[in-house]
């Protein structure tokens, strides 16, 4: 362990306990003397000393602020002509500084406002970090989030795809505008859920959704068999164009709201139970029988609600073709809605995002964190029965094709 001879000014000692800066001034003086001594060790000569062992010459100092619990110190770091002065102090400080930066980033992800972070860091470190500084720190996330959000998806197949959008407010061109954050969640062939990515669109138009689905396919999204979503017209048109041959399952939760909105209050509970029975039917044939009965009994009482039921029947019961164990998880977008709730919890703190990059940074980091939990948690679905069912479906199609050719 190196030992250094330190001298302390008498005035600093006298003022050590008389003011707020006494300890900081003492520490600053001591550390600057240590830095000077370390420079002498590396040069193997004191300032202005003539020595054959000298390894170089000094070239003044540079100021280096160091935030500590006793205040901000200004260190005079030696500069060398023929090399770079090195000390372990700054490596250690950089590690602790990096830990602080990561903590600040984590606070932002968890929904803590930049104002609160400023207050917390001031209390912990004795120095105030501005809101702009906190925002700049969070940009460390950008390359990490971008790499995750743009990762190649070819490693897995995703038989089940769930998509939804959440509207966020973003400041653009001096105005606050609503923008659609489109999110896709997939269930891979191993039965684990994955958050596949997020993009921002001007609205939930067909063009925005088509661009989103094209982006997923460019990242090698494949094997999609069932897509679950609400019935937004732009989304549905884009789905049919981008995932031809896939089955669309309309979210039953959204559908029930549509039916109830068209039903008088005194009949809502009654019709809800009847409609729920259709959705819980064991097979398509039973569901259709129940639907016909409801149409017969309520067609004249609530014509708008019944028209909604008839128009949406095939889409809300599409999941009935799957084995029973998969129906409950795939008949609604409730899993995505719960993800949206987590986003909203942060969004209530942010309220208005300064730009699109800040949305991708914050929401992307949150989704990345949730995705990691899903990957290390319990398997969402056991896919073995699904693939056996799919093989049976292929055999049935081949058999039906042969029969039709013979006929």
Automatic annotation (TrEMBL):
Regions that span the bilayer: none
- InterPro entries, from UniProt? Transposase_mutator
Q: Which UniProt keywords apply?
A: DNA recombination, DNA-binding, Transposable element, Transposition
Asked whether the keyword Membrane is assigned, the reply is no
Q: One MF term in GO for this entry?
A: transposase activity
| Region annotation Disordered: where it falls in the sequence | 45-65
Basic and acidic residues composition-biased segments? 47-56
- Name a biological process GO annotation: DNA transposition
What the record says about family reads: Belongs to the transposase mutator family.
> Known NCBIfam families for this protein?
transpos_IS256 (NF033543)
Q: What does this protein do?
A: Required for the transposition of the insertion element.
User: Any idea what this protein is called?
Assistant: Mutator family transposase
């Amino acid at each position: 362990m190196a030992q250094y001879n330190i001298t302390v000014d008498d005035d600093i000692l006298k003022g050590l306990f008389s003011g707020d800066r006494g300890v900081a001034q003492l520490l600053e003086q001591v550390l600057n003397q240590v830095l000077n001594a370390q420079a002498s060790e590396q040069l193997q000569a004191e300032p202005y000393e003539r020595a054959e062992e000298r390894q170089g010459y000094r070239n003044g100092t540079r100021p280096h602020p160091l935030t500590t619990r006793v205040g901000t110190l200004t260190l005079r770091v030696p500069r060398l002509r023929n090399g770079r002065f090195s000390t372990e102090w700054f490596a250690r400080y950089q590690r602790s500084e990096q830990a602080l930066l990561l903590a600040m980033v984590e606070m932002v992800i968890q929904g803590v406002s930049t104002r609160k972070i400023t207050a917390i860091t001031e209390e912990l470190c004795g120095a105030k970090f501005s809101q702009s500084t906190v925002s700049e720190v969070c940009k460390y996330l950008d390359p990490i989030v971008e790499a995750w959000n743009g990762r190649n998806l070819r490693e897995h197949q995703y038989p089940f795809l769930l998509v939804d959008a959440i509207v966020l407010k973003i400041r653009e061109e001096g105005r606050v505008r609503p923008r659609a954050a489109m999110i896709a969640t997939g269930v891979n062939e191993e039965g684990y859920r994955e958050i596949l990515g997020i993009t921002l669109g001007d609205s939930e138009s067909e063009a925005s959704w088509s661009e989103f689905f094209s982006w997923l396919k460019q990242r090698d999204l494949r094997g999609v068999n069932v897509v679950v979503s609400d019935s937004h017209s732009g989304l549905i048109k884009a789905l049919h164009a981008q995932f031809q041959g896939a089955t669309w399952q309309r979210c039953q939760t959204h559908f029930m709201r549509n039916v109830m909105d068209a039903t008088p209050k005194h009949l809502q509970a009654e019709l809800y139970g009847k409609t729920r029975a259709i959705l819980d039917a064991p097979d398509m044939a039973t569901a259709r029988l129940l639907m016909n009965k409801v149409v017969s009994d309520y067609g004249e009482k609530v014509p708008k609600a019944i028209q909604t039921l008839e128009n949406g029947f095939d889409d809300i019961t599409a999941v009935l073709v799957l084995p029973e164990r998969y129906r409950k998880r795939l008949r609604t977008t409730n899993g995505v809605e719960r993800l949206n709730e987590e986003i909203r919890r942060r969004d209530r703190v942010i309220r208005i995002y300064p730009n699109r990059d800040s949305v991708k940074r914050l929401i992307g980091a949150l989704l990345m964190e949730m995705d990691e939990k899903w990957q290390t948690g319990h398997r969402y679905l056991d896919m073995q029965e699904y693939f056996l069912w799919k093989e049976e479906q292929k055999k049935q199609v081949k058999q039906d094709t042969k029969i039709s050719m013979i006929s």
